[in-house]
Design a protein that fits this description.
The complex is a heterodimer of chains A (409) and B (133). Chain A is α/β, with parallel strands linked by helices. Chain A is 41% helix and 13% strand. Chain A contains 14 helices and 13 strands. In chain A, helix 1 runs antiparallel to helix 8, helix 4 packs parallel to helix 5 and helix 6 runs parallel beside helix 7. Chain B has a three-stranded antiparallel β-sheet with strand order 1-2-3. Chain B is an alpha+beta fold and 133 residues long. Chain B has five helices and three strands. Classes of the chains: A alpha/beta (409), B alpha+beta (133). Chains A and B meet through helix 9, helix 11 and helix 13 of A and strand 2, strand 3 and helix 2 of B.
Chain lengths: 409, 133
């Protein structure tokens, strides 16, 4: 990353790993034949695609034949939800969808689109720490439920849902289980030979692969069918036609293979850095944590008491790249739907920062990031009436007019 | 996507940016004795402004502010504190939020914060009246 700016936004995107770039180049410089072509050059491309499927499947405990290539996780989420829901309604009259309020926008927006097609959607609330209650889900799933969609690791807070318990009632009900595993893959263990999910969304660029490449795992089992989003030349059994972008797929395969090799070492490193970051932030006082202690270590989401999000972001300026929950930078002016679902008052949600760590993050980076945030707070807090009230002893929840408990770092 | 809208400081006028960088007269006075105080806005609305005004011989001799808000809020509060010094309460009562917004060339979307600054100043002036009487 550029010399003067610290990158702490790996959950938004990651650099393409050197090994991944090396794997892709031959298919950009040459190796361009269409993998659907019957001739020798085409078969070579097809073989590269197959090897890549093995790389992706290997990371998640799947069969390579169950990997469908897409343009990215947004498409995978769309295909999974709309594809499964429409088939289920056509074939079995099921018209109900269950999901949570903290899902990625690509899931929520697809659900909203399906509502306009006549589906009923249950958007389940979560606890203040972001966790979804398996019993709450079990209570709404019934024999009209077509699809249940719950993400494994939340992209904003790092919260890990208890999928084995959450998915328990789904198989029995006959509904299709979809899991957005975009942030989980390559970090937490994802084993589809054990986890009973039917459809799983994966993304390359969140895991040191190229943008524009994703996959949807589709379990091979009777009765599981999707209506395709795209119509065309029959590639991928008609489920997702279009000439396969071999270089992109090779990149994703290489990235997932690399992640499988490094996963445990990466996870250990991330755990140490996460703890260092949390301790550093806690020394700043008035820092509310948004998430759970047992969340994925690559994400830490915190709200800063007494300062406005826009002013905070302005102070971080050029020096720190993080995702901010600030209002004025969002097109519609509303803060994070995830933090809102966790009960955070808007003013606090606006003043939140998501730090996400990656393979290249060092202890020095973490310490420097804390320094930058400390400097920002040191400039803004002394002139904030809200901070003054907090220092005088007002609890955060009282200052921000909320009843929920707000855990400090 | 308007890249400019992602930069709350960059979209302010040079004058407003300078005020935001310097933040003159920020922070409550060390001793509150003799200072009138007023507040506007709320945390829920995402903007809170406080003013402290010290009056002598019918004019404001010292003004200080505190603010919780976006960069435009801080700049507007700083501008208003500076503007207040040397003026009479009567002159200050004529200052409207839109005047503040104009003086700083605030974008239309930020006019609201200037209105809160006006509220806070008015509250401080009302408090000043109480003190004097």
């Amino acid at each position: 990353m550029s010399g003067d700016s610290l990158y702490f936004d790996f959950a938004a995107s990651t650099p393409v790993a050197e090994e991944v770039l090396e794997a892709m180049l031959p298919y950009l410089r040459g190796g361009f034949a269409n993998p659907s072509s019957a001739h020798r050059a085409g078969r070579r491309s097809a073989a590269a695609v197959e090897r890549s499927a093995e790389g992706v499947a290997g990371l998640v405990g799947a069969d390579p034949a169950e990997i469908v290539w897409t343009s990215g996780a947004t498409e995978s989420n769309n295909l999974a939800l709309a594809g499964a829901a429409r088939y289920q309604r056509e074939r079995h009259g099921r018209d109900h969808i269950v999901t949570s309020r903290t899902e990625h926008k690509s899931v929520l927006a697809t659900c909203q689109a399906l509502e306009r097609e006549g589906f009923r959607v249950s958007y389940l609330a979560v606890a203040p720490d972001g966790s979804l209650d398996p019993d709450a889900l079990a209570a709404v799933v019934d024999d009209r439920t077509a699809v249940v969609s719950v993400m494994h690791v939340n992209n904003e807070t790092g919260v890990v849902q208890d999928l084995p318990r959450i998915l328990e009632p789904v198989r029995e009900s006959g509904a299709v289980a979809h899991v957005d595993a975009v942030q989980a893959a390559g970090r937490l263990p994802v084993d589809l030979s054990v986890l009973d999910a039917d459809l799983v969304s994966l993304s390359a660029h969140k895991l040191y692969g190229p943008k524009g490449a994703g996959a949807l795992y589709v379990r091979r089992r009777r009765g599981l069918r999707l209506r395709p989003l795209l119509h065309g030349g029959g590639q991928q059994n008609g489920l997702r036609p279009g000439t396969l972008p071999v270089h992109q797929i090779v990149g994703m395969g290489a990235a997932f293979q690399l992640a499988a090799d490094r996963r445990e070492a990466d996870l250990d490193q991330l755990g140490l850095l996460h703890e260092r970051l949390r301790r550093g932030l806690s020394s700043l006082d008035g820092v509310v944590l948004n998430g759970r202690a047992d969340g994925s270590p690559h994400i830490l989401n915190a709200s800063f008491v007494g300062v406005h999000g826009d002013a905070l972001t302005a102070e971080l300026g050029e020096r720190l790249c993080v995702s901010a929950g600030s209002a004025c930078s969002a097109a519609d002016g509303s803060p994070s739907h995830v933090l809102r679902a966790m009960g955070r008052p808007d003013a606090l949600a606006h003043a939140s920062l998501r730090f996400s760590l990656g393979r290249s993050t060092t202890e020095r980076d973490v310490d420097a990031a804390v320094e930058i945030v400390a400097a920002a707070l040191a400039r803004l807090r002394p002139l904030s009436p809200v901070w003054r009230a907090y220092r005088a002893g007002y609890p955060v929840s009282a200052l921000y007019n909320t009843e929920i408990a707000l855990p400090l770092a | 996507m308007n890249v400019n809208s992602l930069d709350p400081v960059g979209q302010m006028s040079p004058h407003a940016q300078a005020l935001y960088r310097e933040l003159p007269r920020s922070g409550a006075p060390d001793s509150r004795t003799g200072y009138a105080q007023g507040q506007g806005g709320s945390v829920r609305d995402g903007v809170v402004v406080c003013f402290w005004l010290y009056q002598r011989d019918g004019r404001i001799a010292d003004a200080r502010f505190e603010a919780f808000g976006c960069p435009a809020t801080l700049a507007a509060a700083a501008w208003t504190a500076e503007y207040s010094v040397g003026r009479t309460p009567e002159e200050l009562r004529e200052l409207k939020g839109l005047d503040i917004a104009d003086a700083l060339a605030l974008p239309a979307s930020r006019t609201g914060v200037a209105l809160v600054v006006e509220d806070a100043l008015r509250a401080a002036l009302n408090d000043a009246e109480q003190i004097c009487h």
